[in-house]
Amino acid sequence: MAYARIIHYATSILCCNKGSMDYLQLHRKVFQRFDISEDDFWYIVRKCSRFSVVRSSSDKSSEDWLSSECTIIAKTSLRLCKNYTKQECSHCQELHLCKYFVYGNCRYGKGRKECKYSHDLRSDHNYPILRECTLHELNEEDLFLLLLQNDPSLLPEVCAHYNKGTGLYGACTFKTNCTKLHICQHFVQDNCMFGHKCKRSHMIDEHGRRMLEERGLSGDIIHELPFIYRNVYKLNARTTYNSREGIADCVAGPSVQEEEKSEICLHYIRRNCMFQEQCIRVHFHLPYKWEVFDGTSWKELRHMEEIERAYCDPRNTHSNGSRPIDFLSMSRESSSVRRLSTASSVTKPPHYILTTEWVWYYKGDHENWIEYGKPDDKQRVASITSKELELAFLADSSAELTVLKGHRKYILSFRDMYQRNPKHNTKRRVRRRPRFVSVQDVENKIARKSETSAAQGSSHNSTPDTWDQTALPETGYALIQLSDSDEYKKVQDLFLQTMRSATICNIKRIQNLSLWEVYQWQKQQMKKRNGKDVKEKLLFHGTQKSNVEAICNQNFDWRICGIHGTAYGKGTYFATDASYSHTYSASESDRRLMFVARVLVGEITGGKASYLRPPSKDDGKTFYDSCVNNVSHPTVFVVFEKHQIYPEYIIEYRMIIGDTSEGNKNEQWPSFCMKTKRQPNIHEGEHED
Q1: Is position 340 within any domain?
Q2: Please, which residues bridge with residue 606 across strands?
């Protein structure tokens, strides 16, 4: 099918609606004009490089699934030539246009005197480029909006200093002379919690309008800028599904790049990642990676170790060199910069090497930076350690904590990164920086780990007695077929309590040493935290064959297993009854699969759809361990931390009489909800189990 007309129409619709639309809104507009199938429309939006698909923070659907919470943003790699106005370019693949013509406010184009720069989209240079990108049919207004939200050279940056500090201009020392836009960064990111009460501007104020008009932007464009900046932020945040640029490619059906990865794979650094290019994490040889955004993609920065060394020192706000990185705004000149890293050390067991140790500092009396939990110049020590702060920050990055130092009390705000004395209303800056690890340190740690593993040999005293010690791979897992043993009968009896109409084909034990050790470590942590033994259960989770490999290797994860709803929270769902989980053990044949998992349910509480983790207890300091459907008689458990789970067995079974438990689950769903073989949940708002 030729998609060019549909792509052009969808682009035009997006540009007419300030550059972006909700997925279902665009879907409705396109289907009013074109007679295409749901699969064709899904293919165009999902795979065409003209569109970026951005998910909301609450959308936890599968990577291959477009939900109603997605936003579609119009995108192009086309730019204005920077050398054209310098008369240094004769032939390139960028547009030769007057910048003020794009701004809609060129004073020469409207008067008698002709502008010396081109206003002609159909010139011998511009038209072939527009045609090659299939943008030649867009009207001027739509094309210019598309350029504005994609070409980083056309709009001023949002002032990072305005968004810090207090006062009318924040921490911006240029005040009314600032050439950057004074607007709330959280408003641009669509996550400002204060609404109309926010002390930062949520609109283009008089200062901003005057600066933009002096820059040459017309009043109409200035009016639309808050929406354009939101689109710019979402595009640059790279939380999108992107493929190669070039509309000619997307008409032919380009390859699709996976959702942007942000965490470095610990196993790859140790050279033993089994997933290779299918890994959901970044493969890099160091536990940190510095990149700069060049307008189309993220590129590695040179002298990465020197940049990291400077960043780890809390005194530094910039890196060294002729083109320094601003660590506070994470930018270099006009380009965005980001730092990728391995998982925080507080989220992994101690035997995990090359995790990122984050250190928290506050500013001392003599312009020095003091680590939390360490004595200051007067030998006073804060009541909270750097590790405890990191745990609290990962739990809630907008929280405020009370910190004691001697007889003094302080309020630490993660959102503002300040420590405030409520009695005198004085503030001290707070910084979170990683502990420096050199390239040589990485090599030494890997070598020591290898030597330790070799010295330990094949001794695995921590594994269950039932495990086959001859089948313990160094990495990954082994599946052990169970025979007619006590272990087999225990699992069989548990399954058949609610699945009398099924016959078991086989039961296999999963032996994954890494997952087991993490599970045992998590059990000890929960025991220390709760001050008592941790409640543990064997629970069921139905799935499909394509998920088995990933779960056995990396444990349960919504990115691997997929979810269909959030009735009791956004986590992994398990059931006490196999019959409940049977509903979700989809299969193309008569044989089905179900996991039996060992789960640390711990202290439970009732779940809610909005939960991203279990809520805090009455003391406000500790949290529950899992959520349930009914506190008095729980049958469904929601676990948010995968270290609380160990996938212990896989049951393969088939139904021997009248398998009608699923019913007709598809009748209540519109056709666009059934593009793949994954079916929506018959229980509204519940997960796959």
Answers
A1: no
A2: 628
What is the residue range of 195's domain?
155-236
Among 50, 12, 54, 33, residue whose Cα is nearest residue 252: 50
| Residue 140 shares a structural domain with residue 164 | no
Q: Does residue 223 lie in a domain region?
A: yes
Q: What is the pLDDT of residues 66-123, one digit of tens each?
A: 555 688 999 988 899 888 888 777 677 889 999 999 998 888 766 567 888 999 999 9
The answer to whether 269 touches 342, Cβ cutoff 8 Å, is yes
Nearest residue to 70 via CA among 36, 127, 26: 26
Count of residues making up the chain:
689
CA distances from 137 to 130, 133, 501 (A): 9, 10, 62
Against a cut of 0.90, is the pTM above it? no
Helices and strands in the chain: count of H runs, count of E runs = 19, 23
Q: Residue written as tokens 């206003």?
A: 119
User: Rounded distance, CA 65 to CA 42, Å?
Assistant: 9
Strand ranges (E), 347-472: 358-363, 369-371, 400-405, 408-413, 418-421, 426-434
CA distances from 529 to 345, 551, 613, 619, 668 (A): 18, 27, 16, 13, 45
Q: Which ranges of 421-563 would DSSP assign to H, the alpha helix?
A: 439-456, 486-496, 513-530, 545-554, 558-561
Q: Is residue 500 part of a domain?
A: yes
75, 109, 129 — which closes off a domain?
75
520 and 627 together in one domain? yes
d(CA 59, CA 195): 22
Do residues 39 and 675 touch, judged by C-beta distance below 8 A?
yes
Q: Let me know if residue 585 belongs to a domain.
A: yes
